[in-house]
Write a structure and sequence with these properties.
With 221 residues, the protein is mainly α. Helices cover 45% and strands 2% of the residues. The chain has a domain of 149 residues: Lysozyme (Orthogonal Bundle), CATH 1.10.530. The protein has a two-stranded antiparallel ribbon with strand order 1-2. Strand 1 and strand 2 form a beta hairpin.
Length: 221
């Protein structure tokens, strides 16, 4: 009987000690120390990045871009690159077209690139080549852009970005034929992709960044 009483007393004493320690250590937290008042918490990046000349650095870097680029110029070139190669700088397709934007060797020569092997391993040069080729095409197609943008051909509204994307696919001459024939002369590449498809798919992007330039050349400077 005495042993049972001693056991009960021991248990009761242990519980009392635990309760005391628990309550005595329950301090009040001063939440004011954790206030965010006065802190700059705006980390939003503009969706217009890449449409100004101050954003040129974006064009020459091998970055993974956000899918929320909208209709900005960077959105245009990245969407086109994804369609061409899924954005792979090192790829060569079955027809021998090279890199992220799938350039042909003859087109590269027109913008001052004569070493395809060097081109393929140089992302910065590929980005520069895209700009140079697009500016050259914009100069060649300057009258067609003026005359056809805003009009509809075969139910498709013609835009500058659609014209430039189609020129990237098939060359400026083929785009001229399509527009001036009222959509009757439709070029298709080796995979069956048509000018008309590119005009529609890449319509409405902001390509004002690109300036018409007859002598545009790719450069690393």
């Amino acid at each position: 009987m005495k042993k049972n009483i001693a056991s009960y007393l021991t248990v009761a004493l242990t519980i009392s000690i635990l309760l005391y320690v628990s309550f005595s250590s329950n301090k009040t937290i001063d939440s004011s120390k954790y206030s965010t008042a006065g802190l700059d918490l705006n980390y939003t990046v503009s969706q217009d990045a890449g449409t100004n000349t101050s954003d040129l650095s974006l064009l020459s870097e091998n970055n993974t871009y956000s899918p929320y680029l909208g209709k900005s110029f960077v959105g245009f070139k990245e969407a086109l690159a994804f369609k061409e190669s899924r954005g792979d700088y090192s790829t060569v397709n079955t027809f021998g077209y090279l890199g992220k934007y799938q350039f042909g060797k003859e087109t590269l020569k027109l913008i001052g690139i004569f070493d395809p092997a060097e081109f393929l391993i140089n992302p910065q040069l590929q980005e520069s080549a895209f700009i140079a080729n697009a500016e050259r095409n914009k100069w060649i197609l300057r009258r067609d852009i003026k005359n056809f943008v805003g009009k509809r051909i075969n139910g498709i509204t013609i835009t500058e970005s659609g014209i430039l994307a189609a020129a990237h696919l098939a060359g400026a001459g083929s785009v001229k034929k399509y527009l001036r024939s009222g959509g009757a002369d439709v070029f298709e590449d080796g995979f069956g992709t048509s000018i008309e498809y590119y005009i529609k798919k890449f319509s409405g992007y902001d390509t004002s960044f690109l300036k018409p330039n007859k002598k545009a050349k790719a450069s690393l400077i």
